[in-house]
């Protein structure tokens, strides 16, 4: 264990080559609590020299880390998992202050993500090659899997611990090194991860954390000759730009982009159970979740029952500051999201949708938006075509399964989808027909460490988690030898 003095858990800095670096003359940006608008910190931004130093440190560390024992990697990742659980309350409080989610959700994010450290600790010990039977008796043919090299990663603000630990754990487990740019709007979580790995004994340079002007940092890291792999979680437009940039330089990429998850509730579904599960899942993190259910397709025979139960559950949500003990939904993370939700609701209503609950800000000029349920939303409304990323459930009806599958697949998104039915025939038709990287039937079963997480179409490519988690961090080498 390192005895190097650590900054306060809430302090903001960079982490490069094993050093925590404060502002020291660097440009800074203000960090604000979205629930109060108050300034809660100043985040230093990396200079070009800082980025180059981080890349050089990662490159130097890779030369030895690539040959490290899988047992050592596993031990470090296990330690990080243990420390994550121990420090979840203090890390969670920082997340709540920065992006608004209720404290219980923030703590759960950290605690649940300890599973990702544990999972990758096990996968680090299972990077297997194989022997291919040769055509000649004096030839031995082998397939080896080797770490790809220095990775550049970019993570968002909505799940700042979750998204970062997935990428860092995979890189560390594979024997890669990583330079990660966390969100400037919610930076403390990725810094907390750096402190955990630092204390767990990760060699200097294997993990480096930077912040800065997104377009400048991403271009600098991706274009560097030292970077061999790029991982990004964020919006579709930005993901396409970064994928194109990486493609120009022949860099491998993993892209987990936006979604617009359809929910299909069939006429034979357990309607009340579906409504209860979906109400809790829909308004988690104020709907600011890439796999949040957004387009609700309700069979016309059960629409009224579903809406009655769903609205009943929605009315029990208590909106308030994330640190208030009775809050079950916090504010939106910033004002641009609040304005976007207002515009989506207004457009839907103008096109004939009805507001069953909510529909407006709770306080003028604030980021608190009421959990909103819309019914009768036409397929042409903006909220049915653009990812809302907020607390809005847009409901419409359908008659036939083939019809609703076609409507579900009409958008370029393909991240997550949900369906509820008691018919095995209908379930099979939905499994086969829905175009999405993840399909959850009759429960909410997405995001565990042991399951792959990723999308298709414009929602990206590649998976994080599950047995697939290390594939994009490893290269395949064929070796043939004649005696």
Task: Explain what this protein looks like in three dimensions.
- The chain has helices spanning 48-65, 70-86, 88-99, 103-123, 160-174, 188-200, 214-223, 236-248, 271-282, 303-315, 335-350, 401-408, 424-433; strands at residues 14-16, 19-21, 28-32, 39-44, 130-132, 139-147, 150-154, 177-181, 207-210, 227-233, 252-256, 261-265, 293-299, 354-357, 372-375, 392-398, 416-420, 438-441, 460-461, 474-482.
- The protein is of the alpha/beta class and 483 residues long.
- It has a 7-stranded mixed beta sheet with strand order 14-15-16-13-12-17-18, sandwiched between helices. A 6-stranded mixed beta sheet has the order 9-8-7-10-11-19, sandwiched between helices.
- It folds into 2 domains: 14-257 and 461-482, Aldehyde Dehydrogenase, Chain A, domain 1 (3-Layer(aba) Sandwich); 261-448, 3-Layer(aba) Sandwich (Aldehyde Dehydrogenase, Chain A, domain 2).
- The longest helix has 21 residues, at 103-123.
- The radius of gyration is 23 Å and the shape is globular.
- The protein is built from 13 helices and 20 strands.
- The protein starts with 13 loop residues before the first strand and ends with a strand.
């Amino acid at each position: 264990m390192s005895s190097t003095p650590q900054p306060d858990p809430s302090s903001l800095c960079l982490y490069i080559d094993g050093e925590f670096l404060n502002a020291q003359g660097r440009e800074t940006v203000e960090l604000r609590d979205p629930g109060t608008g108050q300034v809660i910190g100043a985040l230093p931004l990396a200079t070009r020299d800082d980025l180059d130093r981080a890349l050089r440190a990662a490159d130097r560390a890779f030369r030895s880390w690539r040959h490290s024992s899988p047992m050592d990697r596993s031990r470090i990742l296990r330690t990080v998992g243990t420390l994550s659980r121990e420090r979840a309350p203090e890390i969670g409080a920082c997340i709540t202050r920065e992006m608004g989610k209720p404290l219980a959700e923030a703590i759960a994010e950290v605690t649940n993500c300890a599973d990702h450290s544990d999972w990758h600790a096990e996968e680090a010990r299972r990077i297997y090659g194989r022997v291919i039977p040769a055509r000649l008796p004096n030839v031995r043919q082998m397939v080896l899997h080797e770490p790809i090299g220095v990775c550049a990663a970019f993570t968002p603000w909505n799940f700042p611990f979750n998204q970062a630990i997935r990428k860092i754990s995979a890189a560390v487990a594979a024997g890669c090194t990583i330079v990660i740019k966390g969100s400037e709007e919610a930076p403390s979580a990725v810094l907390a991860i750096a402190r955990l790995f630092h204390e767990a004994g990760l060699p200097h340079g294997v993990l480096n954390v930077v912040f800065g002007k997104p377009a400048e940092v991403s271009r600098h890291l991706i274009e560097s000759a030292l970077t061999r792999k790029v991982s990004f979680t964020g919006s579709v437009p930005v993901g396409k730009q970064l994928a194109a940039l990486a493609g120009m330089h022949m860099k491998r990429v993993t892209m987990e982009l936006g979604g617009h998850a359809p929910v299909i509730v069939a006429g034979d579904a357990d309607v009340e159970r579906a409504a209860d599960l979906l109400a809790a899942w829909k308004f988690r993190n104020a709907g600011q979740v890439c796999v949040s259910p957004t387009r609700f397709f309700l069979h016309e025979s059960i629409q009224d029952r579903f809406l009655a139960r769903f609205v009943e559950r929605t009315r029990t949500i208590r909106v308030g500051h994330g640190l208030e003990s009775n809050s079950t939904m916090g504010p939106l993370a910033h004002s641009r999201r609040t304005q976007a939700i207002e515009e989506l609701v207004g457009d839907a209503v103008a096109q004939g949708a009805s507001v069953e609950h909510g529909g407006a800000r709770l306080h003028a000029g604030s980021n608190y938006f009421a959990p909103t349920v819309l019914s009768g939303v036409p397929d042409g409304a903006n909220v049915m075509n653009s990812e809302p990323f907020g607390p809005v459930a847009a409901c419409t009806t359908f008659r036939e399964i083939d019809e609703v599958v076609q409507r579900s697949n009409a958008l370029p998104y393909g991240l997550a989808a949900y369906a509820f039915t008691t018919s095995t025939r209908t379930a099979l038709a939905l499994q086969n027909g829905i175009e999405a990287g993840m399909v959850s039937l009759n429960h909410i079963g997405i995001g565990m460490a042991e399951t792959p997480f990723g999308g298709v179409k414009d929602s990206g490519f590649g998976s994080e988690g599950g047995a697939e988690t290390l594939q994009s961090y490893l290269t395949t080498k064929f070796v043939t030898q004649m005696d």
